[in-house]
Design brief:
This protein is 41% helix and 11% strand. It is built from 13 helices and 10 strands.
Length: 318
């Protein structure tokens, strides 16, 4: 997306009722990327906007800033602002975005993109608390409520609040590689990747008193990804029945044990593709996939590329 001769311009659109924390995420994360991004903030009319807190925010730019944006980030608004119609001036502002520009929503801003027709036929996500509301209103959107963000090419959507950090780090990784993304994460004291999806953050019933956690078993499994671990192996380590372990694991992580294992193996494989010159078959063996073909299948399902393509883009060891 970024041109070779100028900084990639990111314009953040703030609407009335904006969440100030999420509004600041693009500037904080992308602004830590060694000058690769210029981050501006605008409103639909150049006037201050009321936040969902007890203060207003004044910005220096109006909608004209969107004309030259390489990436537009729409910040979220309080749920009580999510009406059937776009707020005044929003449709006109979004119409200024160039066809080749990338568009990103954080949290409930997915409602804004959907109302504008920008998510029709696309896969997307939003905050777990409003997913059913979103589904009823926008059945033409393929909603995935389990993930932290969705990259659907030109349009990216992220889940609640801090998932804006995840999607902005993803933009850095996609544009400039994992080495810079990891550096940005360290500077901002956030994890470069977060395990699991947003299902792990959904309110769950309080577990019975004295209920054991699966955390120790997850740590044990991470040290043995190269072994053919089964649900029975994990349950035995946790000293639980298969049924109790599977239920408690899902309550704590938001994923089934099998899906979580695949995710951890893919994550470790990505690290080895970036930081080593091991062959695909060697990496598959080290992370617990039976064959290189299995690794290729799972990596493609997770991020849509082959191991070779991923390595060409992100390898830091030459």
């Amino acid at each position: 997306m970024a041109g070779k001769h100028r900084t990639h311009r990111v314009v953040v659109l703030a609407l009335d009722g904006v969440y100030p924390f999420e509004l600041g995420i693009p500037s904080r994360i992308l602004g830590a990327a060694d000058g690769h991004y210029e981050v501006l903030t605008c409103t639909v009319d150049g006037l201050p906007v009321q936040t969902n807190a007890d203060f207003t925010i004044g910005v220096e730019h109006g909608p004209k800033a969107l004309d030259t944006a390489d990436t537009v980030v729409v910040a979220p608004v309080a749920p009580d602002r999510l009406t059937d119609d776009l707020p005044a001036g929003v449709a006109e502002a979004l119409a200024r975005i160039r066809p080749e520009a990338r568009i990103v929503s954080i949290c409930t801003a997915a409602f804004v993109l959907a109302a504008a027709g920008l998510l029709d036929g696309r896969r997307a996500t939003t905050h777990w608390q409003v997913t059913e509301h979103f589904r009823r209103r926008y059945p033409q959107v393929e909603l995935d409520p389990d993930v932290l963000f969705v990259d659907d090419g030109r349009v990216l959507t992220s889940a609640g609040a801090a998932s804006g950090v995840d999607v902005c780090l993803h933009l850095v990784r996609k544009d400039h590689g994992s080495e810079l993304a990891n550096k940005v994460a360290r500077r901002c004291v956030v994890p470069p990747f977060r395990d699991g999806g947003q299902a792990q953050y959904i309110e769950q019933p309080i577990p019975e008193s004295g209920a054991a956690s699966t955390a120790a078993t997850r740590a044990w499994a991470l040290e043995r990804l190269d072994e053919p671990l089964t649900l029975a192996d994990l349950a035995a380590h946790a000293r639980m029945s298969l049924r109790t372990f599977a239920r408690r694991f899902h309550d704590e992580v938001g994923l089934s044990p099998g899906r979580w294992l695949i995710q951890q193996r893919v994550t470790h494989a990505r690290h080895l593709l970036e930081a080593s010159d091991l062959s695909v078959d060697q990496i598959a063996g080290r992370v617990g996939f039976a064959t290189g073909a299995s690794l290729r299948q799972h990596l493609h399902a997770a991020i849509g590329v082959t191991p070779q393509a991923y390595r060409r883009t992100f390898q830091t060891v030459r």
